[in-house]
Amino acid sequence: MATVTAVYPGTFDPITLGHEGMVRRAAQLFDRVIVAVAIAHHKKTLFSLDERMGMAREALRDCPQVQVQPFDGLVTAFAAAHGASVMVRGLRSGTDFDYEFQLAGMNRALVPQIDTVFLTPDSHHQFISSTLVREISTLGGDVGQFVSAPVLQRLQARAAQP
User: Fold this and answer.
1) What is d(CA 4, CA 93) in angstroms, rounded to the nearest whole number?
2) Pair type for strands 86-90 and 5-10
3) Range of the domain at 84
4) According to the model, what pLDDT value does residue 70 have?
5) Residue 124 is part of a domain; what is its CATH number?
6) 8 in the Ramachandran plot: left (φ > 0), alpha (ψ -120 to 50) or beta?
7) Residue 119: which H helix or E strand, with range?
8) Residues involved in catalysis
9) C-alpha span between 52 and 57 (Å, rounded)
C-alpha cells in the first residue's frame, strides 16, 4: 500500500494547541504529515519564519511522522512537489467553511490529484486563533491555556521586549 502524505499549511504565528491537535489527528489518519509554514510575505508576523518553524518542531517533537518545512508560493505546488495527495484544513466555524470550501475548490482545479480533508478542532480549542493569541499576549494577557509551554515562553519573552 502506498504511503499517504498530507500537508497542513498555515502561518502558525504562533502554533496553538488547536493547531497541534489538528496535526496530531492528521498524523493518526495519514502516514506522513508535513506542517507547511508559510513564509508569509503578505503578512506582518510577530515571529520570524525560523522562530515559527522552531516552535512547531518543538511542540510536535513527539510525532515522528510529522515534518515541519517552510513554503513560499502556491501551497498546491509545494504539496505536489512533496508527493502529497491530501491537504488538511481546519474548520472552526461556518465562516471558516465558506472560505475553506472556496479555497479547496480552487486548489482542486489547480491540482486535481490533491484532495482537501476538513477537520474540526476539539470543542475546547474551537475558538482559538493565532491572531487572538498574539493580541491577548501583546496586551499582557495570559494565553497559557491556548499554547504549549515552549510557545508561551516565546510569547512572554516577545511581550517583555521594549
Assistant:
1) 27
2) parallel
3) 5-160
4) 97
5) 3.40.50.620
6) beta
7) strand 115-119
8) 19, 43, 92, 130
9) 9
The rounded distance, in Å, linking the Cα atoms of 143 and 155 is 9
d(CA 62, CA 119): 21
Domain total for the chain? 1
Q: What are the cell numbers at 56?
A: 512547531
Kindly report the pTM of this predicted structure: 0.93
> What tens-digit pLDDT sequence spans the chain (162 residues)?
789 999 999 999 999 999 999 999 999 999 999 999 999 777 789 999 999 999 999 999 999 999 999 999 999 999 999 999 999 999 987 778 888 999 999 999 999 999 999 999 888 888 899 999 999 998 999 999 999 999 999 999 988 776
Cell numbers that stand for 7 in this block: 500537508
Q: Buried b vs exposed e over 8-25: b needs ≥16 C-beta within 10 Å? A: bbbbbbbbbbbbbbbbeb
Three cell numbers written together for 19 = 493547531
